[in-house]
């Protein structure tokens, strides 16, 4: 007989979501187009569709990306308030992003194949379809 904690562990492992390190290519993608402060980057990632971003983890990832020379930062003292770091992607970061894009492209092909086999007539419902069902 399974305990409630075993059931919880199973449901957490079976939950659907982006891989933990998927945040890295999303961060690099945004930094490719904008040199920005960490808080602004976090806002853009949330607008991109990442539902919740742990602030502490987010800044740890930024520091690690900087250690790995994928991102660089410098202090912005031009604003009237306290100095803030402005983050930018490096050439190595762009190359790493290209690797991620290639991997995600292969993953997308595999997902497409999965749905073709799963149900050749499968079309995901949009949120507007769900609203219409309620009426």
Automatic annotation (TrEMBL):
PANTHER family: PADR-FAMILY TRANSCRIPTIONAL REGULATOR, TRANSCRIPTIONAL REGULATOR RV3488. This is PadR family transcriptional regulator. Pfam families: PadR. NCBIfam families: repress_PhaQ (TIGR02719). Gene3D superfamilies: Winged helix-like DNA-binding domain superfamily/Winged helix DNA-binding domain. It comes from the Bacteria. Residues 28-97 form the Transcription regulator PadR N-terminal domain.
